[in-house]
Design a protein that fits this description.
The chain has helices at 6-9, 28-33, 38-44, 48-58, 70-75, 101-107, 109-123, 137-152, 183-190, 204-207, 219-223, 225-231, 233-237, 270-276, 310-315, 334-348, 354-371, 377-390, 397-412, 414-421; strands at 86-91, 127-132, 168-173, 214-218, 247-254, 260-265, 286-290, 299-300, 324-329. The chain is α/β, with parallel strands linked by helices. Helix 18 packs antiparallel against helix 19 (397-412). Iron/sulfur cluster binds at residues 179, 197, 349-353, 356-357, 394-396, 398-399.
């Protein structure tokens, strides 16, 4: 196990995670003792437009995967339109490997509740929803309890802290479908329909929930709002890089000694994160990894020093995504890992559009063939051709994301595929598992 050096330990910037280890961190009493709801008192004295400007000035970008500037999104909500406005928090967290929102809601649910109230006040919403993944029973229980505590203390409901502002907050559990994390599918699901993406435009900013102006933000995005209100835009920008400001929760999983959440300034490298996590497990050497979940192209050992911010990861040919860094070693097979991810995308494809529905179905079958030792060189062309017909031609990002590990594993680890095809690697799947592959 590697012990982190002091200069690497200094990379840790606990802002969203700072209360997680406090006893009973999820209770309102603890939260209030540790700065809780101080930002709300400050925010309610400000003009909503000034809050939107503050978030713009901070450079906060969405933590849900795409990194869209949050203040800009809030500014798109038309004001004085006479329609109800909604804030919807995306707490679906379905991206494989991603584990930052659920621990946040479990350990520090009031951070999200406080962020919801401030953000709703800024966009002039009087109703907000938190859409949480159905399987996340424990987190949902903590969240519902926190919402009740906030009502009891007058932070939610009518005339919040005698400011004249009213807000109702509802925690809604989904049924557990990855596609319901896509913001327009989420809105359909929240309205009681089958969760499938909507055609855009119109965008949620004007035609979102119940065809009204709606902001959809990730849990981490909204939980970043209270610290920004308290600390100011300059303090937030003092962490991270020029275009990727603030801290970020990186969730490390796989072949590391201490997997878990590490909150660091954006721009930290995997080399530094591995040092913080005690290094690779004994006997394992880094071979490939995802910078932001399975929808982001794989990176290899040569990318250890890539700055993990939006621009740095893009320059290396991948996407920062949800900062779910899944670590694989020389004892893991990139072909098999990609196959398992494809099984996931095939299963989770909502079926609305042909490239994703059919393409993932066929790619799973090609992978099974290769892994059973019955693949051909032509199969590799078929895979690339199929990806070419999915990427940019699918109705939503699920289809695009499904191609990431296929194309990147073929780019970096083509030899592994050839070893199966040419018989140098023993088949991983039996003939029995091949059923339906042809
Ligand atoms: C298939 C798919 C799944 C997604 N899952 C999530 C999710 O679980 N949580 C999330 O915040 N964003 C998810 N997103 C991104 C959302 O559509 C949206 O961009 C995000 O909630 C916006 O919030 P932000 O601006 O705060 O990042 C997903 C996107 C796609 C295409
Ligand atoms: S890309 Fe996949 S998940 Fe998205 S709409 Fe098409 S079929 Fe549904």
């Amino acid at each position: 196990m590697t012990t982190p050096r002091p200069e690497t330990l200094a990379k840790l910037t606990p802002v969203l995670t700072k209360r997680w280890l406090s006893p009973d961190a999820w209770r309102i009493g603890t939260y209030e003792q540790l700065d809780g709801y101080a930002a709300l008192r400050k925010a309610l004295k400000a003009h909503p437009d000034d809050l939107i400007q503050l978030i713009k000035d901070s450079g906060l970008r969405g933590r849900g995967g795409a990194g869209f500037p949050t203040g800009l999104k809030w500014g798109f909500i038309p004001q004085g339109d006479g329609k109800p406005h909604y804030l919807v928090v995306n707490a679906d967290e379905g991206e494989p490997g991603t584990c930052k929102d659920l621990p946040l809601m479990t350990h520090d649910p009031h951070a999200l509740v406080e962020g919801v109230i401030i953000a709703s006040y800024a966009i002039r919403a009087s109703r907000a929803y938190i859409y949480i993944r159905g399987e996340a029973v424990h987190a949902a229980r903590r969240l519902r309890n926190a919402v009740q505590e906030a009502y009891d203390k007058g932070y939610l409901g009518r005339n919040i802290l005698r400011s004249g502002y009213d807000l109702e907050l509802v925690v809604h559990s989904g049924a557990g479908a990855y596609i319901c994390g896509e913001e327009t599918a989420l809105l359909d699901s929240l309205e009681g329909f089958r969760g499938q993406p909507r055609l855009r435009p119109p965008f949620p900013a004007t035609h979102g929930l119940y065809a009204s102006p709606t902001v959809v933000n990730n849990v981490g995005t909204i939980a970043s709002v209270p610290p920004i209100v308290l600390g100011g835009a300059d303090w937030w920008k003092s962490m991270g890089t020029e275009k990727s400001s603030g801290p970020m929760i990186y969730s490390l999983s796989g072949r590391v000694v201490n997997p878990g959440q590490y909150e660091c300034s954006m721009g930290v490298t995997l080399r530094e994160l591995l040092e913080l996590a005690g290094g690779m497990q004994p006997g394992h050497n880094l071979r490939f990894w995802t910078p932001g979940g399975s929808s982001t192209p794989l990176l290899a050992a040569e990318h250890l020093d890539v700055p993990l911010d939006f621009e740095g990861v893009a320059a290396a040919g991948s996407i920062l995504g949800t900062t779910a860094t899944q670590i694989f070693s020389d004892q893991d097979c990139p072909v098999y890992a990609t196959y398992r991810w494809l099984e996931f995308y095939h299963h989770e494809s909502c079926g609305k559009c042909t490239p994703c529905r059919e393409g993932n179905y066929w790619m799973v079958r090609v992978y099974r063939r290769i892994l059973a030792g019955q693949g051909t060189h032509e199969d590799l062309e078929t895979l690339l051709d199929t990806c070419d017909n999915i990427l940019g031609r699918s109705f939503c990002g699920l289809g695009d994301g499904a191609t990431s590990s296929v194309t990147s594993s073929l780019q970096y680890f083509k030899q592994d595929y050839l070893d199966y095809i040419e018989g140098r690697t023993a088949p991983k799947l039996s003939d029995k598992q091949l059923v339906g592959a042809h």
